[in-house]
Amino acid sequence: xxxxxxxxxxxxxxxxxxxxxxxxxxxxxxxxxxxxxxxxxxxxxxxxxxxxxxxxxxxxxxxxxxxxxxxxxxxxxxxxxxxxxxxxxxxxxxxxxxxxxxxxxxxxxxxxxxxxxxxxxxxxxxxxxxxxxxxxxxxxxxxxxxxxxxxxxxxxxxxxxxxxxxxxxxxxxxxxxxxxxxxxxxxxxxxxxxxxxxxxxxxxxxxxxxxx
Length: 212
What we know:
- This protein is α/β, with parallel strands linked by helices.
- The chain contains seven helices and six strands.
- A six-stranded mixed beta sheet has the order 2-1-3-6-4-5.
- Helix 3 crosses helix 7 and helix 4 crosses helix 5.
- The longest helix is centred in the middle third of the chain and has 17 residues.
């Protein structure tokens, strides 16, 4: 059982949050986390590269010199892949790198990622995080009070909050996501995770639903 301090916007401790990482994930599988991260990274690849084969490179197809009697190795077209300026022997073609793991496996990986943040003391809980309008300066001061100003951080809200998103999107190293959009890559990439108390409640509720 972990007892996490709950901070207010000024960095003062205002309570404790009791949570057992095993409520989110009974165990943490490094292999599943690795598989999930590789999948998300593969899905981000564009795959729009393309190189020319020897049949597509400009140049004559004439044999460069006669087969025998010159003392040189035999040579054919100037467009051969072994010559400078020739085509690629194994030319690259556009391709789709994307694939999907089973939905339940990805859900489990997300829970494991959050549980690992709790276990490694990399999760910070704030009692409330809301703005009447986008306030980047105020968001910066909150992060500074929580000692997160120079640390890559994932800010997690219970639901989509446009003001919180707009307040953090221009701050270097900060990403803002609601609980419903979390994934293993987004959780594991930053060094810290800042969650609201309501978001942590939503995570526990979602985990219980997915595990049922």
